[in-house]
Write a structure and sequence with these properties.
The chain has about 475 residues and is an alpha/beta fold. It has 14 helices and 7 strands. It has a 5-stranded mixed sheet with strand order 5-4-3-6-7. A two-stranded antiparallel sheet has the order 1-2. Helix 5 crosses helix 14.
Length: about 475
Amino acid sequence: MTGKSKIPPELAAQMTPEVRAFVESLLLRIAELEETLGPPKNPRNSSLPPGCQHPHAKTPRKAPRSKRKRGGQPGHKKHERSLVPTEECQEVVTLLPKTCRRCDTPLTGEDSDPLRHQVWELPEIKPMITEYRRHRLACPCCGENTCAPLPEGVPTGQSGPRLIALSGLLMACFRQSKRRTALFLESLLGQPCSVGLTVKHQAIITEALRPAYDELATTLPTQPQLGADETPTKQAGQKAWLWTFVASTFTLFTMRGSRAATVLTELLGATFSGVVMCDRAKMYWQLGRLQWCWAHLKRDFQALIDSSDHQVKRLGHDLMRPTKRLFREWARCRDGTITRRTLKRRLAPVRRDIEHLLLRGLFSGNPKLIGMCRELYDHREWLWTFLDQDGVDPTNNLSERSLRHAVIWRKLSFGTQSNAGSRFVETTLTVIETCRQQSRNLFTYLTDAVDAHFRSQPCPSLVTNP
């Protein structure tokens, strides 16, 4: 071990030469391993989610904390719920003062502009139960018994479309377990429900929504640009992957047992010609037209800055400066301050600087820089696709956001237990996110889809023109 010993002198004096040599060899090995691993990974310099870091371990803020108190500031714009028209109120109560509050003189008449005070309340929740009496009559001619059929659209089970839609909404959108869903229906709605019944509701919803899901899957390869991402999950204790593809008017989720490029070929086809916004995972490379996520690159550059190697740290700082300028210019383009053509002109020097810096890292002779810089420089056209393609963002944030709900659900449920459960997850997540994009009422859509399923009618389509 070279250099000054890291063993405190008071401890070194108590060690035999053999023990001291052994401890120093262990310290050297620890230093080598720390150098190999690099700086500790955190959400700022890697793809780790923010929730994995303890709140007390977060990096302290550089900017000084504001001296303003929490909450609304003096003079801020007031936000309040506006009154609904009187005609929409279920009940109007007129209140007239009887006597003067000062001298008790009796008062008469009415105020032409009374103060309006509205109180919102939930109605008494009581389930609607419809009984169908199916008579069986014997034929006077042949004696055969004939039972009256149920009307069209009436389910053979005991749950109607709205009840099934609400049950599915609680499980899929509000991430409630089957047991808590049954508890909600029974406690608040007075609807007898068991865990087994919620499983039946889950199966009905999957079957009702599947035609709309398949239609979106058919439309996916025709999209001019897509955001793509994936996250690990489990099915019956085995590894699985939840993929998401975000188009301009819909989002498609799919559960697969693999993260391989074959999944992309299966879903997008071998002739897909659109642009895919993604991270630098190699299974996307076969698609040809990519936009690598600059948010991921920013975290990678931060990892360089956090390195103990001064050469690596210097290149990280040099790459971070033009990257921050890129995000500032993109924010102006996104809010309409500048056009994409102006953005391209303003980012021309940024592009030159970054590519020169990548070359510097490529020929630095430092093994910590050569691999990453070579990959970025050899595929540098995938860094700038957003400059020439309308509708393409420099980040993959849309896909990351679409996965957020699914990731929280996975942490609560620990994945799925069967193939049927996986189909429910991918189908309902697709409908939830697509309805949000299209500003559709999710509960209304689920109710209409289940009702159409009971009536043997086509499922309402989710395919719209952008």
